[in-house]
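JOB MANIFEST
job_type = single_chain_structure
chain_count = 1
residues = 578
[input]
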Amino acid sequence: MKLLAGFTFRYKWSLLLIVLFSAVTVVLQLWNTGFIAEVTCDTVSALGKELTEEQYRERIVSIAVRMLLIMLGMAAAAVLSGLLAGRIAVHVSEDIRNTLYEKTLTFSLKEMDHFTVSSMITRCSNDVMQVQNGLYMLLTAALPVPFLIIGGIVGVMQYQLSMAWIVALGVGLVVAVFALLVKKALPLHRRMAVELDSLNRVTREGLSGIQILRALNRETWNGDRIRQGSAELKNTAQSSGLLEAIMQPSMYLILNLLNLLVLWIGGVYVSRSEMQVGDITAFINYLYMVISGLIMGAVVGLQVPLVVIGAARIREVLSTEPVIRDGNGTDAAPTNYDVEFDNVSFRYSDDAGMVVRNISFTAKQGEMTVIVGNTGCGKTTLMQLIPRLYDATEGEIRIGGRDIREMKLDELRAMIGYVPQRSFLYTGNIRSNIAFRDQAITDDEVERAAELSQSMPFIQAKEKGFAEWIAQGGSNVSGGQRQRLTIARALGGSPKILILDDSASALDLETGLKLRDALRSMMGDITVIFVTQRLSFIRNADRIIVMRDGEIKAVGKHDELKQSCDIYRDILQSQMGA
């Protein structure tokens, strides 16, 4: 709740107004209850001929006008309080959502692996919504509760103190019922959050891989998984809903039983002339204020576990310190853009084995370094270490002689054009995707990036050219076109280091050769590191790194390795079909 308080107190003036309106409402309600007692007493007096009909009418009209004004005041205060509460709740949820997203941007892949994408989506949507709804209920229903209870107790103290034990009995019974229900509700709400994460994951997985499910005729299998997750969530939600359904009727049953007890005992006091009938009416109203206040608090309180769990899941994200931190940075630019791995080893977690071990090589500026090896040997992992998506567990990576961990992250990543193994485009047009890292680049620079990446032929074939719409993920272009556009995006920011992680696998032979020649033409200023198994790129590389099972087995050029490295020869034979 400290997290929620931190965001909420940003709107302290609105909060103060809500408190003021809540206090005003309770004061007016107490005043109104006094008038109800007067009306009851006057009615009894009129029936007993103690008041004439004209006197009775004058008093009733006078009291009715005042009660009407009080009701209007209470309504105005309630409306203003609700508007302010809604404004605060919406703004707080916006602030939390923005803070969550900004925090997520600081995470490395290690933190994202820990939280998972499906869980992050739930935390940014459902958990934030639970906090928003809970905060609104807290400000509109729970905040007036202390005023109602205090006001009710003050009102009770004005009448028969010997009946105050009835109020205490009601408070004890309501609190006991509430504590029992919350004890049962809390684990159910926790389970619902976990089950919702799981259902989101399965649903997202099924929608993302729907083509594979159809191709392999596995729709029924995935449907069963979703139905099972939905059934588990439904059962938990039903159990939680049952507790909510039980709470209010049971508490109002307590209130009605207390009213009967007041009427019975109050009747005895009236028969002894120790109380008036109006006093009993007022006492019942004050009792109602106290118990209904507790019931309102209990209704909100039963939602508190949802808010607490949602806030805890949000706090878990916000309190997580990224393992990758900004370096101190220096004003000195690198003397060159050689990328040097010095005895680098890496593992994904402390209890896992090393994925890559004792990696040492230098990719020089103006040269193309190609990395080849069997599937799962750690090629992609090495590429992710350069822009510090992960940090090396042991050893150092240097650019121009500077340890990358000493550089500012913005400085480091500004000099790198990274094309990941999985091509991904953002919703927008072709130009916005190529200019994604720097929207200020000129049209000439966008066109040059498209030409170098061999994207220009298919862009010119599009009806709208660079204004052609790209769907989410690039689903409306082919795999080869998607790869070329991601290469163009990396080139759009004029990088000094270009990392291509198996980024030509979907290209035809002719386009691949043109891409190779284009990269060659621009390599005087940049360092190119290319993970690929394509012979056309391997053969013309300035340096080839051969990996097997997380280790470097050989370094050299094509002709040298062809003669000296069995692993390299196996790769060549697999590419040549021998």
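[summary]
The domain at 88-318 is CATH 1.20.1560.10 (ABC transporter transmembrane region fold).
The chain has 20 helices and twelve strands.
exit_status = 0
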